[in-house]
Amino acid sequence: MKEEMKEDMKELVGALWVNHRCKACGLVLGLVLGVAVLLFGFWNTVFVLVCGLLGLFIGIKLDKGENFTERLDRFFPNRYQRW
Fold it and tell me: Which of 17, 34, 44, 55 could form a disulfide with 40 if both were Cys (CB 3.0 to 4.6 A apart)?
């Protein structure tokens, strides 16, 4: 009986993934964010999300072959550089 339930759940999750992939991802993301807010607090969760998005932005730019240090040089004037 447990094996049948396990197989039914696998089939259900597989069907959801194939037919409603974006809805399933949105549900999981919403649940994870909700749990993070409850466990760590709103501002700590926002900080982690901002850091993650900043890392994603930098990674996308580097994957495209852009020189990220030139962009940082334009953003921060020479007076803020330590070297």
Answer: 44
